[in-house]
Amino acid sequence: MENPIYKARRTPRTLTLRRRCKQSTTSIIQMGEAKALVPESVVKKEKRNEEWALAKKQELDAAKKMRFETRKLIFNRAKQYSKEYDEQQKELIRLKREAKLKGGFYVEPEAKLLFIIRIRGINAMDPKTRKILQLLRLRQIFNGVFLKVNKATVNMLHRVEPYVTYGYPNLKSVRELIYKRGYGKVNKQRIALTDNSIIEQTLGKHGIICVEDLIHEIMTVGPHFKEANNFLWPFKLKAPLGGLEKKRNHYVEGGDAGNREDYINELIRRMN
C-alpha cells in the first residue's frame, strides 16, 4: 500500500520535475552512446600507432642485443690478439736463447711493415719525386703513413729518400699512433676514430669491426691490409721533441733522412 505521505506530495509541479529529470537522464545516456561510436579513421590511426610502437620496440631490442654480442666479440678478439702477441714475443726470445747457447745468433725475419714520415718541403724538388710523395699520401711535412714492404715500395722510397725517414714500427708504436692520432676516411671525410661503429661501417665487410682488429691487420700486414691502410687518414704528427739533427743528411751520416730501421720507434715517441 502506497504511503499517504508520498501520495500527498504528488503535485502537478512535482510530476513535471520528475518527467524533466527522466528526459535529461535519457538524453545523457543517448549522448554517451553517441560518444562511444568512434570514427573508423581514428580506430585505424590508433591501431597503426600501436603497430609502429611495437615495431620500434622490437627494433630497439634487436639493436641492443646486437650491440651486446658485438661488444662480447670485440672483447674476445682483443684477448685473442693479446695472447697471439705474447706468444710471438716468447717464441722470439726462445729462438734467440737457443742460438746463443749454440754459439751463434738468431737473425729475425725481414720486417713486412714500414712507417714513413715526411721531413722536408718542396723546395728544389723534381716533379717525379713530388708525384711519388703524392702517391704515398705524404703531402705535408710531418705526415706519416704505413706501407707494406715489397719491391715497388722499396724502389719508390729510394727515389724520395732525401725527403723522408722511415723504419720498422713495433706494436706499441702502431697502437699509440692509431689510438692517439688515428682518423678514418668515411665518404671522403676525415673522421676521428671515437667509436668502433665508424670502423665497422667501412671495414665490416672485411671482418674488421673494431680498433684492435685494425691494429692487428696493420701490424701483421694481413690480407686486407690495403683496405685498412687506405681507410686510415695520413697521420698528422707534431714536430719532434728536441728537433731534428740534419734533415739533408742520411741517418747513417748523423742526419735524419732515410732508413733508420727500429729507431723509427724513438722518433714516433717524440712526434706523437
TrEMBL record:
Sequence ranges assigned to domain Large ribosomal subunit protein uL30 N-terminal eukaryotes in this UniProt record: 38-109
Domain annotation Large ribosomal subunit protein uL30-like ferredoxin-like fold: ranges:
114-164
**Gene Ontology MF annotations:** RNA binding; structural constituent of ribosome
CDD domains (alphabetical): Ribosomal_L7_archeal_euk
Q: Which GO terms describe its biological process?
A: maturation of LSU-rRNA from tricistronic rRNA transcript (SSU-rRNA, 5.8S rRNA, LSU-rRNA)
Q: Which UniProt keywords apply?
A: Ribonucleoprotein, Ribosomal protein
Name the NCBIfam families on file. Answer: uL30_euk (TIGR01310)
Q: Family assignment?
A: Belongs to the universal ribosomal protein uL30 family.
Protein name (record): Ribosomal protein L30 ferredoxin-like fold domain-containing protein
